[in-house]
Write a structure and sequence with these properties.
alpha/beta; Arc Repressor Mutant, subunit A
């Protein structure tokens, strides 16, 4: 089964949700309708493409949730007469395409083709980011500061000067940091920090 064989529709407007579901089903596209993200999270699908009504919050909330859970599905946003700023913001937040309702079968299939092409590359990147962030969340605030210092290429002495602690204390934090992150060496910890967008 391809990732795009199921379209996961999220729309709080019952009438429009029914209209879109009926229209897509009649076009031969399998639709799983959901009223909200809360409902979706309770029964998160293994594959598919999300088609979410863009209310200004849905796209960043969904992207944030998928990144946190390291469970990525391509997301297409849609709106009724969306302004240019709304479309740009949704794409910047992580939507792979944007449709204007009412839309036709051709537009939906074109968006699904884009989703299929981008799924593996984007999904793998998001998955790595989510996994890296979950590792970073295990660290204490001080361990994160030490990690930033390490990523900046500073020695234990210079990190200690930056944080007003002794080099020996930095060494202890550094060892704890590597252990909690499951990193075998400093360069691996730096890679994880970069993937988690803690450092650039």
């Amino acid at each position: 089964m391809r990732h795009t064989d199921i379209l996961i529709l999220i729309d709080a407007d019952g009438r429009r949700r029914a209209a879109i579901s009926h229209f897509l089903a009649s076009s031969g596209i399998h639709v799983e309708p959901f009223e909200s993200m809360t409902e979706l999270v309770q029964r998160w699908p293994r594959n598919g493409v999300i088609l979410a009504h863009d209310d200004g919050h849905a796209v960043p909330t969904l992207i944030g949730r998928m990144t946190k859970d390291a469970n990525w599905l391509p997301l297409i946003a849609f709106g009724v007469e969306p302004g240019t700023n709304r479309v740009v913001q949704a794409v910047l937040n992580g939507a792979i395409d944007y449709l204007e309702w009412p839309f036709g079968e051709t537009e939906v299939r074109a968006a699904l083709a884009v989703a299929e092409e981008s799924h593996d590359a984007m999904g793998n990147a998001r998955l790595r980011e989510g996994m890296a962030r979950s590792r970073i969340q295990r660290l204490t605030p001080r361990e994160r500061e030490v990690l930033v210092g390490v990523a900046d290429g500073l020695s234990n002495r210079l990190i200690g000067e930056r944080l007003a602690i002794s080099p020996r204390t930095v060494e202890i934090h550094r060892a704890n940091m590597l252990n909690k992150m499951g990193a075998n060496h400093t360069s691996e910890a730096i890679r994880i920090a970069i993937e988690a967008a803690l450092v650039s």
